[in-house]
Amino acid sequence: MRVITGIGALFAFIELLYMVMVLAGANAGNGFFIFIQALAKPLALFWPGLFPVSDPNLAVILDYGLAAAFWVIVAGVIARFAAR
User: Fold this and answer.
1) Concatenated DSSP letters for 19-56?
2) What's the CA gap between 31 and 38, in Å, rounded?
3) Residue ranges of domains in the chain
């Protein structure tokens, strides 16, 4: 059960880290940024572009913030079923 919630928390952390880096204006050419981006984009699944907004900062918050919440919720549900 802890492993499942830990994986969900790790996925959510990656999403939130990427979101903070983008909002803070991190150097997109930096190796660490590219690594986190390579992890975060596939983990975002269907969230990017789901809610079209004109403000790019709000778009990042919606796209990756909702993906992070999704991973926490899904991991919690799966862990709850696995504990039975």
Assistant:
1) HHHHHTT--TTSHHHHHHHHHHHHHTTT-TTSS--S-H
2) 10
3) 1-83
Alpha carbons 74 and 28: distance in angstroms, whole number: 30
| Per-residue pLDDT band at 2 (split at 50, 70, 90) | confident
Distance from C-alpha of 48 to C-alpha of 41, rounded to nearest angstrom: 9
Average pLDDT over residues 42-71: 93
Q: What is the pTM of this model?
A: 0.90
Cα separation, 57 vs 62, whole angstroms = 9
